Amino acid sequence: MTEMPRYRYEELADQIQEEVRSGKLAKGAALPAERRMTEVYGVSIGTVRRAVALLRLRGVVATLPAKGTFILGAGADDGA
User: Fold this and answer.
1) In terms of C-beta density within 10 A (0-12 exposed, 13-18 middle, 19 or more buried), how is residue 9 classed?
2) What angle do CA 41, 47, 48 make, to 5 degrees?
3) I need a labelling partner for 75 at 20 to 30 A (CA). Which of 28, 42, 58, 69 fits?
């Protein structure tokens, strides 16, 4: 049986979460602006927004209006 296809925003959220786990993106750091993320990851703005929303649900990031989106940790299984 083959693996079910996944939405690109889920793949992007997983990729960003892995970058946090690996230390490429540091706890407390701000994520790049949405437009910059479209360039870095080669995806649409809608994909970036859905991925960030999913990361918020996972507890990986928090968004402060007019400030940005900041990394809290690797998520629910984060030892910190």
Assistant:
1) buried
2) 60
3) 42
